[in-house]
């Protein structure tokens, strides 16, 4: 589902980018798991994610989310989708999930060395990995790489290349700050894994 | 999605928001219906001063309805019977054990990033893979749009439908990696569309991922940004089965 695996950009831009997704396995452990999803959301909100989204309510942190309202609308098949830019927060959430034996699956997308180190600190043994083999086929159709660095941060491709070009120009012309521009780009991403902090840094680069 | 020309104020504010650039400015703004994938971002996100955007009844009529379900993340797959554009893939592999040791999961997401694809264009890969004996994931919605999963051919009535994303998923024994990569790479050179390619592999007990070295020997140096299932899911797939 979410496209966190194929985020485009220089390796250094991922050092503060940890996409966190938790969900039950449909047909195996999803029945009656609403309290587990709710607890995961509570722990994530306690730490304070950089962004978090919901396809059910069509919201993200940029648009404004009431944590209690979102938790109340949680169902057995609701995923938790968010992003952190601080490694320590990921560690804290994973530690609590492990300690409380919540039991939902969790994937963390980030630089694999960093994620493995996080797992070591928490005492987890990574199970499996999604590995990107890049973009293939008629690649001449693709937008510019600096545009894709920002547009690929939405897990469902909802951030248009045209919008990225528009805000990049506004930043270059001094009509918008990188923070304001990253907020504009974060709005269409309901999966909530658009990392505004990473976007701000990318937009601040000349 | 459509724009009511009577209500449109021709301000052009909406144009940058379309992920596929399908909004065009004539006397008023219009949506190129052949290029629109019905993702719905325009009607959800754009603060149109004339409130001119609307979803016409044709959006949910077959075969155009596949555009929405393969492009709008808020939509469900009522036509295919499967929710989402793909499966849970690596996300729940610690519980499902779908990708076991000795096997590799493959996911080719057509149309991403930011280009879209005609459903018929995925055949360049699916027919090649089918000839090689690949069995496509039955729970993937694209498999439901195949005329025959043994040939990889796409149903005639949906071939020209454009979508934001369509994912081809399957599992291979590890021993077939080199052969499979060779076939996909060759077919990709003939493709009229793009695809983002991903593999799912199990970590070895020592924490290594031998597939990375094997891919490097094939000339594919994978990025270090990976999607890691940290193993918190219960019951564990290996214990359950």
List keywords for this structure.
heterodimer; A: alpha+beta; five-stranded antiparallel beta sheet; B: 241 residues; three-stranded antiparallel beta sheet; two-stranded antiparallel sheet; 20% strand; elongated
What features would you describe in this structure?
The complex is a heterodimer of chains A (206) and B (241). With 206 residues, chain A is of the alpha+beta class. In chain A, 39% of the residues lie in helices and 17% in strands. Chain A has a five-stranded antiparallel sheet. The longest helix of chain A has 14 residues, at 34-47. The radius of gyration of chain A is 17 Å and the shape is globular. Chain A starts with 17 loop residues before the first strand and ends with a helix. The mean pLDDT of chain A is 95. Chain B is an alpha+beta fold and 241 residues long. Helices cover 20% and strands 20% of the residues of chain B. Chain B has helices at 41-45, 65-71, 93-96, 123-131, 177-188, 210-217, 237-240, and strands spanning 2-3, 23-25, 29-31, 53-54, 103-110, 117-118, 146-148, 153-154, 162-163, 166-173, 194-202, 225-229. In chain B, strands 10-5-11 form a three-stranded antiparallel sheet, covered by helices on one side. In chain B, strands 1-4 form a two-stranded antiparallel sheet. In chain B, a hairpin with a 3-residue loop joins β2 and β3 (29-31). Chain B is elongated and about 65 Å long. The N and C termini of chain B lie far apart (46 Å). The model of chain B is unreliable at 79-83 (pLDDT under 50). Chains A and B meet through β1, α3, β5, α4 and β6 of A and α1, α3, α5, β11 and α6 of B.
